[in-house]
Specification:
This protein is of the alpha+beta class and 200 residues long. The chain contains 4 helices and 13 strands. The longest helix has 13 residues, at 187-199.
């Protein structure tokens, strides 16, 4: 099901005081949301939490939450970090079923810039969306969406339909093939192209 397992304990104290108490005892406080039981204040051993975080597969992925003998599929939606030492200080988890559709944002990565004629001519990649909000099965959330810039000329765009999203993944925005990025011409590249056209 999930690669990461978080062993949690339920916090007796809530609020700022309870969170501080958890941190003093070497734990990261958090809240578990969703389902009929409502929000539950929890805590995870700080070392275990950091280890899960550094795998890169904690935020936005299906994770197994263990409390004693109970197991539950959850998704980490938010992690807050200390502004100075960058250590995790709080997290939010949401209960989900393994195949449940979840709404989540995933990053867009741009590949093969060197194969774009428009960028080679001095064009600039204007990125409209660094991430896209999608609906995806909880157990098949993509790590990222890849935009291939091969062959892209000045004035051409990468749209949602160009991203080759995995089966079962749909954008939250419906009814239009929205723009992810555009190769825009610079003034220098435009004048060079005009001179090239005049010479031919």
């Amino acid at each position: 099901m999930a690669e990461i397992v978080l062993n949690v304990e339920v916090r007796e104290r809530t609020g700022t005081g309870g969170a501080r108490e958890a941190r003093r005892s070497g734990k990261v406080p958090g809240v578990l949301y969703g389902g009929p039981r409502g929000p539950v204040p929890i805590a995870v051993n700080a070392n275990e939490f950091r280890k899960a975080l550094y795998t890169g597969k904690l935020l936005g992925h299906l994770v197994t939450l263990k409390y004693g003998e109970e197991s539950q599929g959850v998704i980490a939606k938010d992690i807050q970090f200390h502004p100075v030492n960058d250590q995790p200080v709080h997290f939010d988890l949401y209960r989900v079923d393994e195949h449940q559709l979840v709404k989540i944002s995933v990053p867009v990565h741009f590949r093969h810039q060197d194969a774009s004629p428009g960028l080679k001519k001095g064009g600039a990649l204007n990125i409209a969306r660094h991430e896209v909000e999608i609906w995806a099965p909880a157990d098949h959330i993509p790590e990222d969406l890849v935009a291939d810039l091969t062959g892209l000329e000045i004035g051409e765009s990468i749209r949602w339909s160009n991203l080759n999203a995995p089966q079962g993944v749909e954008p939250v925005i419906k009814g239009r093939d929205f723009v992810i990025a555009t190769v825009a011409g610079s003034a220098a590249s435009a004048s060079a192209e005009a001179a090239e056209n005049a010479a031919s």
